Amino acid sequence: MRHRCVRPSVFVLAACFTLAVTATVNVAGQTAAGGALQSVVVLATGGTIAGAAASDVQAGYTSGQVGVDQLLAAVPQAKKLARMRGEQISNIGSQDMNDEVWLKLAKRVNELTAMSNVDGVVITHGTDTIEETAYFLNLVVKSRKPVVLTAAMRPSTALSADGPLNFYNAVAVAANKNAVGHGVLVVVNDWIHGASSLTKTSTTAVQTFLSPLSGLVGTVAYGEIELYRLPVGRHTADSEFSLDGVTTLPRVDIIMAYENMDGALIDAAVAAGAKGIVIAGVGNGNMTKPALDTLAKHAQNGIVCVRSSRVTTGQVGRNVEVDDNKLGLVASLGHNPQKARVLLRLALLKQRPLADVQRLFDQY
């Protein structure tokens, strides 16, 4: 079974962290200790961290306006943490993230981490879909070396931009040998999240990312790092997923449940070519009887259907209020709809019995 440290709410995280301090090991300053700096490659994809606006005090801006070389030049302090070079993978707002960029990014990360002269990778990304990209990489990267995503809620031109310090801290984590084996991480606003646990919770607040079910992997303040624990679930070098020979990913659609829902959108998704469907259900992955009947009909016809929840925290249990065994459905357990979609798309790269798909949701 997958072991999770489940918190009753995000508001008890601070108390949990206080208790955890006595068990943590301060690993700050080990990046360059005793020898040459670690080598970190920065892969830029765009996002708000590379955004620009006409004024430093306006809400509107355009993502992906700053190239990777400008990003590196904007934070010269990071050169004291690692030897760096950058590559531009894309330069888009992450609302436009797509499979082509995902496959290109995953391939390049695997190439770089296989090189003996590369110690870690930092990826700059937009906040809108960073949790999906991070989780995707967490499942397909085949290395124990640190892979760290970072982002910003304010563009590079903003008053009190958060991107530069986020980038500095991300480099610190990627260059730290103690981060090896922690899977893909996301470093934003002094917090280190595991890719499987974080989610965006605010449209505009700088402290938008939380890991509400399992808590943080660690913290980082001005490059000073503390790691509390390993992330939950199998990942990276321990993952069974592979992109070898993969040029396209199966279509999986997310459909939100709501009052008086019928099965029309479920039927439409299947008609559009969906091989899998994730329901962002109400409560414990629930939906109206007409919607559930329609979902079960397609499940019996080979469409893999997963019950997740539109609720921010909590797990969707198997066979709790819905008879998943009878209807042929998969319970998402601790995966929110967007993470469930990522995992299901990779699961569908090969033929699997339904019980094996459920196993993946338990282990990853």
Describe the protein's architecture and organization.
The chain is built from 10 helices and 15 strands. The chain is of the alpha/beta class and 364 residues long. The chain has 2 domains: 229 residues, Rossmann fold (3-Layer(aba) Sandwich); 112 residues, Rossmann fold (3-Layer(aba) Sandwich), CATH 3.40.50.40. The strands form 3 sheets. It has a 9-stranded mixed β-sheet with strand order 1-11-10-7-6-5-4-2-3, with helices on both faces. Helix 8 links the parallel strand 14 and strand 15. The longest helix is centred in the N-terminal third of the chain and has 15 residues. The radius of gyration is 20 Å and the shape is globular. The relative contact order is 0.13.
Keywords:
single chain; alpha/beta; Rossmann fold; 2 domains; nine-stranded mixed β-sheet; 10 helices; globular; disordered N terminus
